[in-house]
Design a protein that fits this description.
479 residues; alpha/beta; transferase; eight-stranded mixed beta sheet; ClpP/crotonase-like_dom_sf; 2-enoyl-CoA Hydratase, Chain A, domain 1; transferase activity
């Protein structure tokens, strides 16, 4: 598909996104109302945006697609009102909103009329947050105040070659030019800013959105976000422990038919977030990762096993989304402590607090599997029993405790010989860091064979399906 903008481009994107023949347009006859600055001489069909509804694999969705051939897709009063009307319908019907963005910004000719109407979009998105899923795909320019739009939605995608996302253009940043660092590019926004969940060609992005919609509930009261399971519920995951360092592989292995939709896949890769299915039910997954393997099994990246600022914020946002939409949460824990750098020290405490709060505050079913190390307060943060995990499993090779046994022995017996320290380390490992010791104290519900993990998870989430949990009455938390 050519990237050249045409008059039908906005409609073509909608047609490619939705089931064939399902789109029904709303507001096609709307056009600009203002006549200031010779606007009466300009043609503004649909006021530069196509709006309506249709289905994706039978799921009702509302969609708007900006038409860059009309005043470069600039948002005017009627343009914004059309999008707001789509949000009103979506809220009434309890269905997702998908925005396909290609816009030059606010329409200068309409001044405060455009500005006020645009502000109502912020309000509509805020009211819809946590009620219906919101998805944005950027195919052209999304700059200035418009950059807040994808930030207010739940998931964002960018076309990797031509899309631009920025508040301030790269050349407006002191000491920077776009050739030095293109802060508006899909690469920067997905890898550095962490705002974008996925990048690709236009066709790839639209297909990803279709896949995502089929995994998500239609709204926060929808209990139909499941599909028929055609995978063996008792399927063994042989040698899954060999992939423990790259938990994206583990999650794919555990999921029905190996379905795994990873979110923010290029950002904070030491923390994996995404959706899997277990017995047909959508499950949100959060997992620590030590290594990233490519398709050929080569190591692409390695991490120190500590919680990072970016990883915590990424995971906290994801857990909050799952809790808002009643999606059960699975965590795979393999954490040694906190990422230690001068830069991260500025924000690590507040970021860990956000993740701690997200897990503790979530009332959806929560299951934790300790697949490696689980040391100190970093382990507590990763969906531990203390934070309200309903069930906690551990693999036999897991290590659970304050710290590594050898380090603990060196601290406690600093003046003793190497032989004494070695003996005490062995005792500490058996008494304090083994999964059996944690199970003996009730902090782990069962020590399981790694190959049986899928079976245990299917059973656990089925048992927890009707979970109800009350919390102290309050308006909202402040973390």
């Amino acid at each position: 598909m050519s990237y050249e903008t045409t008059e039908n481009r906005a409609s073509e994107r909608i047609a490619a996104l939705l089931d064939e023949g399902s789109f029904v347009e709303i507001g096609a006859a709307v056009k600009a109302r203002t006549t200031d600055f010779n606007m009466q001489t300009k043609e503004t069909p649909g006021d530069g945006v196509v709006t309506g509804y249709g289905v994706i694999d039978g799921n009702l969705v509302y969609v708007y697609s900006q038409n860059a051939s009309v005043l470069q897709g600039a948002i005017g009063e009627m343009h914004a009102k059309k999008i707001a009307a789509i949000y009103d319908l979506a809220m009434k019907m309890g269905a997702p909103v998908i925005g396909l963005v290609d816009c030059a910004g606010l329409r200068l000719q309409e001044a405060t009329d455009a500005l006020h109407a645009f502000g109502t979009l912020y309000m509509k998105q805020t009211l819809a947050s946590g009620v219906i899923p919101q998805i944005t795909a950027i195919f052209g320019t999304c700059g200035g105040g418009l950059a807040v739009i994808p930030s207010l939605t739940d998931f964002t995608f960018m076309e990797k070659e031509h899309a631009k996302l920025f508040v301030n253009s790269p050349n407006a940043l002191e000491g920077n030019v776009i050739t030095k660092c293109d802060t508006s590019s899909a690469k920067f926004q997905s890898e550095e800013a962490g705002l974008v969940d996925g990048t690709g060609t236009e066709e790839e992005i639209l297909e990803e959105i279709r896949s995502l919609v089929c995994l998500l509930p239609a709204n926060n009261e929808d209990d139909n976000s499941y599909d028929e399971c055609t995978d063996d519920l008792n399927r063994l995951c042989d040698a899954i422990e060999n992939a423990a360092e790259d938990t994206a592989v583990v999650l794919s292995t555990l999921s029905d038919n190996h379905v795994f939709f990873e979110t923010k896949r290029d950002y904070a890769k030491e923390m994996v977030t995404g959706f899997i299915r277990l017995n047909g039910v959508t499950i949100g997954a959060v997992a620590n990762r030590c290594k990233v393997y490519d398709e050929d099994g080569n190591v692409e990246a390695e991490f120190d096993g500590g919680l990072s600022v970016r990883g915590c914020r990424k995971a906290a946002d994801f857990v909050n989304f799952c809790d808002a939409f009643n999606i059960p949460v699975l965590s795979l824990t393999n954490v040694e402590g906190y990422h230690a750098t001068m830069c991260s020290e500025r924000n690590i405490a507040s970021s860990v607090a956000k993740l701690t709060y997200a897990f503790a505050n979530a009332t959806v079913p929560k299951v934790n599997v300790i697949i490696g190390k689980a040391y100190g307060s970093a382990y507590i943060t990763m969906n531990s029993k203390a934070l309200g995990a309903d069930l906690v499993y551990a693999w036999p090779q897991a290590e659970i405790g304050m710290m590594d046994a050898n380090l603990a022995a060196k601290i406690m017996y600093a003046e003793e010989s190497a032989e004494v320290i070695r003996q005490k380390a062995a005792e500490y490992e058996e008494m304090q860091t083994s999964p059996l010791a944690a199970a003996g104290r009730g902090y782990v519900d069962a020590v399981i064979d790694p190959k049986d993990t899928r079976k245990y998870l299917v059973g656990a989430f089925e048992m927890l399906f009707t979970k109800r949990e009350d919390r102290p009455a309050k308006k909202h938390g402040t973390v």
